[in-house]
User: Which sequence fits this backbone?
């Protein structure tokens, strides 16, 4: 495996209203989006977001994250960052 | 907390507490390290049934049974998917349980500060003894555990914010953020999540960070967030150093064990014994044994230095500030007799060691002293500061609040020092940080939410900002412990929160989500970037429909202005809403312009004839004679004779 592209967590912002009607829920739509990515590594959906933001977080490789940016409903993909207690 | 309600002027007989019914039924979502629910601060005695609108729940785990929740703690969840994704699966649940239980202490402290119940006779080994109360004693707490032993991850924070909004919290208290510098808004999950919260009418109160005293360090600085810095109160824990030549040097400590012997002990500097910062294992026992060791602040945890001295056979420790922390004194519950001294005193002690043939010292612990401190509040050196690193036209932090030596609830799982060699367990602990100031303001915001259920979150923020004060209890300008000089709006924002005045601000500067969209347009964000915040596609005309001439035109309750040789004149617009009890009100302006900056306000009189009526004005900031560098400060004040609506002005030369 390419260690430089090992899976990390990304937060994916999605235009929620563009969900195709064939998906019964946003979760199933998001699952479909990441399952359709080219897959040297399996992807994993961590959370779906519906109020604070619209989208999901998932474990992806950097190249998969880059691929996501070309999806018409994806607005932004950012790496999951650690924060600290103040 | 003990004493901070008194320092803030909160009372049972008048002002914000009785006029808000102590925030009864308001829900504060605390996103933190969880909670230790058995602490008396979380008793639900005297609180009514859970609000019917509440949709949240308490998860049940082996160490967090259903009985952990009550009418005070009405929600409790834990978010660890992002954490596990980073560090691997949490296998040893005895070390870190996948539950809302707080094994760190921070979350129990912040939750009890924001909304803890009344607890009689609270103390930390008799220090800071008194009646402990949260700011909003009847508010309900919803716990969202997002921080774990190796950090707090955006993916978990967003999941918690998402759920908190769905559950129906009114306020989110977030003592978490980036360290050092704020990420761009569209890469900052807290900023984006807080925007979503604002869309749902949820106020996010957040800590500015502990990266002071350097400038440009404030985090959580999006204009829809209430950003809180930290300051001292009029309570100290003196523990003086008496040197061999009988000089007495002031310090602070929460040490509570066996006293030192009643004669002076040999005194050495850690730097001469293997480690100036007194790292564990680095001190040479042969040079430390039976002595008091001076350890420089920095490098490792303050309390860890005493632990290192103890392990090396030392009998006492003097924590010596350096230039970085200046005169800021943080009291710690050291494991051995120890005290912290400011930089000036530290230099005197270092010089005494250097020049004396047989340097000696002892430490005298004097307990808790209230009211006799030199002046308060003073801004903590660690409190992160402006100017705003992302949008210099928005002043951040917004306000300061008590964040130094705060007593509040603590976990039963961890020692107050967080040291493995410390076997003590306490109900209350005294700690410092903007993490501690944030929940003070979260609780006060909850009180205002109850007092004014129809106010927008921007109106609540405005009330807190325009009523803040800038003079200490000696009548002088608030001091900055980071510099030893007068503090400035880039350090303290509008000033120290004044809850009772915030109850009756007279005028507020209101904002809605469209205004924040206009703000994003004004800083050059593209429709695609803005779509991340609003969660849906935005047409290319989004910034035509929502426009501001500049980010400084956002109807913010404070002013931050950048002048330059290219731009010697800046104009900002503001719209004030009359929320005073009198429908008919006439406000006149007083401008306190700094030297070298001309400020004019037009019109100079705002006439209101109805409640909630709005009036607008324009402020012109013009470079005056001789101003070509540095920062200048002033204020713009509107008064009708009963209310004083004060906006700080900070001007920077670029």
Assistant:
């Amino acid at each position: 495996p390419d260690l430089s592209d090992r899976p990390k967590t990304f937060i994916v912002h999605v235009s929620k209203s563009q969900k195709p009607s064939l998906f019964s829920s946003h979760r199933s739509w998001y699952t479909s989006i990441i399952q359709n990515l080219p897959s040297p590594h399996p992807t994993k959906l961590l959370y779906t977001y519906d109020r604070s933001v619209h989208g999901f977080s998932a474990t992806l490789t950097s190249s998969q994250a880059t691929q996501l940016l070309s999806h018409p409903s994806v607005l932004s993909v950012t790496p999951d960052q650690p924060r600290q207690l103040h | 907390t003990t004493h901070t309600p008194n320092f803030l002027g909160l009372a049972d007989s008048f002002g914000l507490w009785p006029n808000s019914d102590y925030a009864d039924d308001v829900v504060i979502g605390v996103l933190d390290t969880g909670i230790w629910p058995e602490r008396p601060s979380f008793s639900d005695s005297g609180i009514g049934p859970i609000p019917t609108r509440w949709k949240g729940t308490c998860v049940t785990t082996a160490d967090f049974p259903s009985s952990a929740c009550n009418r005070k703690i009405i929600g409790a969840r834990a978010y660890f998917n992002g954490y596990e994704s980073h560090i691997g699966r949490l296998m040893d649940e005895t070390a870190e349980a996948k539950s809302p239980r707080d094994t760190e202490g921070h979350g129990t402290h912040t939750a009890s500060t924001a909304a803890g119940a009344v607890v009689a006779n609270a103390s930390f080994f008799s220090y800071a003894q008194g009646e402990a109360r949260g700011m909003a004693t009847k508010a309900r707490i919803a716990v969202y555990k997002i921080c774990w032993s190796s950090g707090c991850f955006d993916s978990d924070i967003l999941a918690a914010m998402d759920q908190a909004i769905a559950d129906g919290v009114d306020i989110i208290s977030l003592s978490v953020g980036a360290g050092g510098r704020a990420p761009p808004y569209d890469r900052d999950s807290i900023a984006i999540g807080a925007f979503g919260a604002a869309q749902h009418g949820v106020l996010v109160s957040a800590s500015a960070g502990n990266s002071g005293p350097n400038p440009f360090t404030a985090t959580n600085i999006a204009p829809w967030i209430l950003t809180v810095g930290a300051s001292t109160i009029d309570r100290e824990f003196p523990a003086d150093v008496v040197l061999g030549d009988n000089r007495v040097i002031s310090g602070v400590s929460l040490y509570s064990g066996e006293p030192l012997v009643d004669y002076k002990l040999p005194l050495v500097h850690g730097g001469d014994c293997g480690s100036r910062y007194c790292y564990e294992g680095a001190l040479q026992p042969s040079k430390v044994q039976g002595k008091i060791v001076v350890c420089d602040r920095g490098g490792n945890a303050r309390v860890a230095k005493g632990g290192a001295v103890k392990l090396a056979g030392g009998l006492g420790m003097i924590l010596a500030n350096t230039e970085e922390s200046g005169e800021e004194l943080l009291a710690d519950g050291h494991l051995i007799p120890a005290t912290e001294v400011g930089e000036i005193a530290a230099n005197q002690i270092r010089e005494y060691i250097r020049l004396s043939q047989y340097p000696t010292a002892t430490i005298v612990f004097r307990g808790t002293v209230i009211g006799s401190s030199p002046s308060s509040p003073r801004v903590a050196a660690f409190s992160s500061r402006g100017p705003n690193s992302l949008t210099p036209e928005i002043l951040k932090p917004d306000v300061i609040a008590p964040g130094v030596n705060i007593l509040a609830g603590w976990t039963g799982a961890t020692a107050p020092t967080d040291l493995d060699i410390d076997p003590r367990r306490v109900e209350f602990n005294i700690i410092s940080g903007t993490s501690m100031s944030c929940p003070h303001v979260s609780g006060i915001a909850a009180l205002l939410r109850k007092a004014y259920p129809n106010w927008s979150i921007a109106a609540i923020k405005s009330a807190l900002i325009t009523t803040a004060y800038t003079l200490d209890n000696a009548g002088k300008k608030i001091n900055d412990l980071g510099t030893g000089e007068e503090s400035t709006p880039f350090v303290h924002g509008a000033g120290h929160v004044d809850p009772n005045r915030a109850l009756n601000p007279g005028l507020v500067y209101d904002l809605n989500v469209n205004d924040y969209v206009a703000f994003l347009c004004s800083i050059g964000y593209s429709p695609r970037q803005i779509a991340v915040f609003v969660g849906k596609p935005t047409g290319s005309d989004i910034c035509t429909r929502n426009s501001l001439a500049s980010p400084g035109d956002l109807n913010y309750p404070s002013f931050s202005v950048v002048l330059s040789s290219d731009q010697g004149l800046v104009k900002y617009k503001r719209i004030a809403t009359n929320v005073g009890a009198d429908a008919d009100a006439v406000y006149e302006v007083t401008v306190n312009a700094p030297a070298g900056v001309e400020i004019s306000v037009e019109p100079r009189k705002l006439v209101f004839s109805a409640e909630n009526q709005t009036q607008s004005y324009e402020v012109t900031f013009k470079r005056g004679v001789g101003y070509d560098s540095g920062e200048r400060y002033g204020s713009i004040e509107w008064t009708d004779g009963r209310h004083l609506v004060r906006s700080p002005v900070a001007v920077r030369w670029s």
The longest strand of chain B covers residues 569-578. The longest helix of chain B spans residues 434-451.
